[in-house]
């Protein structure tokens, strides 16, 4: 080979990369942040405030990034909260506010197509009982949500990936557990009046008021009658004897 060609081959060999397996891992996806999603969408300021004040945003962050079930959020808009009776949120305890937020979260990813086949009642993060779940019914052109106190429809899609779905609702979903009076516990059955128990070893009738006993003095009465008859018989005998010997 000529010198120029040999020099070119040497340069190409020295510049080629080493042929060893790559250990570089793909960059991890960033954690799903619900509040950032709602902030970007806009008009969810009150719901965002509730998420943060109850620390449910941190719970959702953990749920979404440490679970394969995903989550579905029915987020009320600011206008939905404005339509509540004045002072409603301020009257709630911290525990009730936390439950209210959880009531808007389903701990399973539900795509819009799954609304057609979902089973009612829908369990929420607040629980699965009848007072903390709601019904979802899909029609050809709408999706209706009923809680027993609220009747509304899904107003639009806010966000969706393979793990999280966020839908807008124009009414706050009110759980029966917070906003309806709980049934009163049944009154206890009055216990039957117990008869006074006799003391152990006590003779019959002790502890009870004794009834007056009327005794008939048969022996005394008989003795009196016999005494009277004896006197009469004796007198009769005396008269007979006097008449006989005196005549």
Automatic annotation (TrEMBL):
Gene Ontology terms: cellular component: plasma membrane; side of membrane
Protein name, entry field: FAS1 domain-containing protein
Main location: membrane
Localisation per UniProt entry: Cell membrane
Bilayer topology term: Lipid-anchor; GPI-anchor
Entry similarity comment: Belongs to the fasciclin-like AGP family.
Entry keyword annotation includes Lipoprotein: yes
Phylogenetic placement of the source organism: Eukaryota, Viridiplantae, Streptophyta, Embryophyta, Tracheophyta
Organism this protein belongs to: Linum tenue
One GO BP annotation of this record: plant-type secondary cell wall biogenesis
Region of interest: Disordered: 187-209
Keywords noted in UniProt: Cell membrane, Glycoprotein, GPI-anchor, Lipoprotein, Membrane, Proteoglycan, Signal
Occurrences of domain FAS1 (ranges): 31-173
UniProt function note: May be a cell surface adhesion protein.
Pfam family, one: Fasciclin
Signal peptide boundaries: 1-17
